[in-house]
Amino acid sequence: SGQIEREITFSTLGWLQSALWQCLLTHLWARGLLPFYTDFWAYPLYSLTLLWLVAYLREIHFYWVHRAIHPWKDRELGPLDGDVGAFLYRHVHSLHHKSYNPGPWSGLCMHP
């Protein structure tokens, strides 16, 4: 069925995309174009808020974005019917659900 090959291919494309973003941000930081600070306690409220956002807001964001790319009403509908989720599921996210026998590559197998 090609499941493992598809999962390895799209998982690899996903981490390559992630690596490119990390390279870009590291490059911006190294050139001084990305602001940062080294003393966590110099800005305690900002630091603790940022720590909380990274830990919790990411989970909330992931849930709602993942929910939004599933059909809101019916899988056969589309954006003109008011169901953007069905369109995104059909053309982007359904690849992630083609793994009928989940394995180590299944969790990250999605369009990059």
Task: Please specify the SSE layout and strand pairing.
Layout: H1 3-30, H2 44-68, H3 84-91
Report on this model:
The structure is a single chain. The chain is mainly α. The chain is built from 3 helices and no strands. The chain has helices at 3-30, 44-68, 84-91. The chain is extended and about 55 Å long. The two termini are 21 Å apart.
Number of strands: 0
- Quote the beta fraction: under 5%
Distance between the termini: 21 Å
Unreliable spans? none
Radius of gyration, taken over Cα atoms and rounded to an integer in Å = 19 Å
> Helix proportion of residues, in percent?
40-55%
Residue-averaged pLDDT: 87
**Quaternary assembly:** single chain
Q: Strand-and-helix sequence, N→C?
A: HHH
Number of helices: 3
In one word, what is the shape?
extended
Could you give a short account of the major beta sheet? none
Structural class: mainly alpha
